[in-house]
Amino acid sequence: MTRFFRDFFARNTLYVARDLLGQVLVRWLDGERLSGRIVEVEAYIGEDDLASHARFGRTGRNEAMYGPPGHAYVYQIYGLHHCLNIVTEPEGFPAAVLIRALEPLEGLERMRERRGVVDPLLLTSGPARLCQAMGIDRRLDKADMCAPDAVLFVEADMPIPDEQVATGPRVGVQGDQQARTVPWRFYIRDHPYVSRRPRPTGDVR
DNA sequence: GGATCGATCGGCT
DNA sequence: GCCGATCGATCCG
Q1: A181 has pLDDT over 70
Q2: Phi and psi dihedrals of A191, rounded to 5?
Q3: The domain that contains A100 carries what CATH number?
């Protein structure tokens, strides 16, 4: 399978996000290959995006977002969970695609051990779940996902036609009306492995 | 099915 | 000192 080169990630973040759907995220962990099809993602674009970690400018945590495309941005949240992003756009512009859900393909038993659950629907449907299943933590922050010897990378697999791509507001975003409602969440329509977390209503009456 | 809440801690406005 | 791009348990209906 072909891996994506850096120029794939250097593009407009919305295109990268949409095009990542259907592709396969691969993680080599202790000599074992774990993988899953990407079925749900979100785009975080620039310092003007008030839902982005870059909204307050460059800091220690978000530094990877300002770095070269095709690298991982992994952060810890709520003191106990990790989330994986892939950095996009040319170096210097802070943007990334959050990987929100996978359909597990390879290494299910290992994922079950790591997650402590058996149901495949609970293995990698959720940004923190997939990180736990695949052993992704801050040690992989800034890892180059385009390097020949990468232990975390994306393989080109199955393009998803426009009819099967759905969009919507990003999950878990609070505050600013624009940030809450802009349709920068992309997912495969009716795919069983998309996370179903209910989102707080962004409605104003 | 939906709503609510606690866990747990690094980074920061 | 406060808060979070989450998850899982628990309670209610």
Answers
A1: yes
A2: -80, 130
A3: 3.10.300.10
